[in-house]
Design a protein that fits this description.
33% of the residues are buried. The chain contains eight helices and six strands; from the N terminus they run αβααβαβαβααββα. It is of the alpha/beta class. The protein is globular and about 55 Å long. Helix 2 crosses helix 3, helix 3 packs parallel to helix 4 and helix 4 packs parallel to helix 5.
Length: 250
């Protein structure tokens, strides 16, 4: 039986977040420039997102470019930005055909002007789509996001809009760029690295992590299905006790 047939559609994760890693190593293995790996990562994005939407996953969030990625060689950063502009442009039709709404989180103002503009246009164009929300994390880092949220909370306290007594989990969430999006139940990272690299630190408090050695350009829908099946076989306890699986003394 394939992985897809093993998925229980009634217990799908509503939100899957993915750290798409390994493009550079994928290219290097073939004696090519890192940029070649990024270019080939687009097919993985298309297949994975389409498969998620077809299954009925409501939210997918992809880590596409981190705050720290600005430190890469200028040539690579420029190529990534160029790729982003072209991909958004080309794939807007795919998003429309699949009824997917595009969203973005991160320090979007720091993106090159044309990139920012294309992104906002695609977000606007897909705004009424409602099968899935696809969020791209661009120039994103969780520490940036949380710091930004705290600054805005402080400003609102200063302006008398909220009182410090009102600051709690749910208020902080409203100031994050993921406001209105449920926390990811499943976080996938490709390329065999076991780290979070400053992604969604607040939101993954109780996420299930799935690591695969596949490099991102090789990741396809079958890999997504496998990750979902793996997730569905886990026992999520949230700090409590699951009566059906608990063992030991009564
Ligand atoms: C992930 O692939 C894509 C981005 C971070 C933009 P990498 O470029 O990090 O590839 P590796 O990890 O060096 O192989
Ligand atoms: C994380 O990958 C960021 C993205 C996938 C966009 P990196 O390749 O930048 O992370 P590190 O450097 O291995 O931690
Ligand atoms: Mg990497």
């Amino acid at each position: 039986m394939g992985f897809k047939e093993q998925i229980d559609l009634n217990r799908l994760p509503s939100h899957i977040a993915i750290i798409m890693d390994g493009n550079g190593r994928w290219a290097k293995k073939q004696g090519k420039l890192r940029v070649f790996g990024h270019q080939n990562g687009v097919a993985a994005v298309r297949d994975t997102v389409e498969a998620g939407a077809e299954l009925g996953v409501k939210f997918m969030t992809l880590y596409a470019f981190s705050t720290e990625n600005w430190n890469r060689p200028k040539l690579e950063v420029n190529a990534l930005m160029e790729l982003l502009i072209n991909t958004i442009h080309k794939e807007t039709k795919t998003l429309m055909d699949n009824n997917i709404r595009l969203n973005a989180i991160g320090d979007l103002e720091s993106l090159p002007g044309r990139c920012h503009k294309n992104l906002l246009e695609a977000i606007k164009k897909t705004d009424a789509n409602n099968r899935m929300t696809l969020t791209l994390a661009l120039s994103y880092s969780a520490r940036w996001e949380i710091t930004h949220a705290i600054k805005n909370i402080a400003a609102d306290v200063k302006a008398g809009k909220i009182s410090p007594d009102h600051i709690n989990d749910s208020l902080l969430e409203k100031y994050l760029s993921t406001a209105g999006i449920p926390d990811p139940e499943l976080l996938i990272r490709t390329s065999g690295e076991y780290r979070i690299s400053n992604f969604l630190l607040w939101q993954i408090a109780y996420s299930e992590f799935y690591f695969t050695s596949k490099l991102w350009p090789d990741f396809r829908r079958e890999d997504l299905y496998e990750a979902i099946v793996n997730y569905q076989n886990r026992d999520r306890r949230f700090g409590g006790v699951n009566e059906s699986t608990a063992t030991g003394h009564a």
